[in-house]
Amino acid sequence: METQRYEQLGVPSTRSVLEGGLTVWTAERPSKEVAVQVVFPIGWNDDGEHPELHHLMEHVLYTGPAADGVHPRMRHLISRGVHGNASTSDCYTEYWLSGAQEDGVAMVHALLNIVFDGDVQANAVDTQRAAVAQEKHDREPGRRVPRWRRGVLYSNNAAVQIPMVERSVTSVRTLPLATLTACYERDYHPNHAALIIAGGMTHGAV
């Protein structure tokens, strides 16, 4: 296992790459709370011919098959005050949990199981289609503003432009289950992710 220490960062951090390829970052601090996050370098810009593909995948994995939106692998933690969420951006998708220090290891286990042992079930997909379509409708105006601003301010600098990807609500509602399954099998691997932990948890404990 390769491990490096970064003292020069704003918060001194430790980085390891595990045998399975998962990159682990920890920023230990004197705290009674722990925040756990898993990040994948995939987002809207990687949707290709299926707008909102990765956004829908994020919803399906985070909520699981539960009708109330609480993943069965998180239910015991939610009752202990742990909270979390997931989100998709242009270039990455993140899943996170935050809670008491004594629940840190359990949060890591739950989050890794959710993303790496996911089950893309038809009922969960159908439930989340409407939620993703509504989020897309509500947030699209706000997404266009920074793209427009950068286009005006940096019209001659392609490096800072944000690609404009049109996202169709119709695509979300008709996206085939097989496409989602293929997306999960292709993108959700330990060597394609980073586990980031901050707060009262040591690197060795991870």
Sketch the topology as an H/E string, one letter per element.
EEEEHHEEHHHHE
Summed over residues and divided by their number, the pLDDT gives a mean of 86
**How much helix is in the residues?**
25-40%
Number of helices: 6
Please state roughly what percent of the residues sit in beta strands, choosing from under 5%, 5-15%, 15-25%, 25-35%, 35-45% or over 45%.
15-25%
What's the N-to-C terminus distance? 13 Å
Q: What is the radius of gyration? A: 18 Å
The main β sheet shows up as: 7 strands, mixed
| Computed structural class | alpha+beta
Number of strands: 7
Give the overall form.
Answer: globular
- Low-confidence stretches are none
As laid out across the biggest beta sheet, the strand order is 1-2-3-7-4-6-5
List the helices and strands and how they pair.
Elements lengths: L1 E5 L6 E5 L5 E6 L4 E8 L12 H11 L11 H4 L4 E6 L4 E8 L3 H13 L5 H32 L15 H6 L2 H11 L6 E6 L7
Parallel strand pairs: 3-7
Antiparallel strand pairs: 1-2, 2-3, 4-6, 4-7, 5-6
Helix pairs in contact: 1-4, 1-6
Detailed description of the structure:
The chain is 37% helix and 21% strand. The protein is built from six helices and seven strands. The chain is globular, with a radius of gyration of 18 Å.
Question: What tags apply to this protein structure?
Answer:
about 210 residues, single chain, 6 helices, alpha+beta
What's this model, at a glance?
With 206 residues, the protein is α+β, with helices and mostly antiparallel strands.
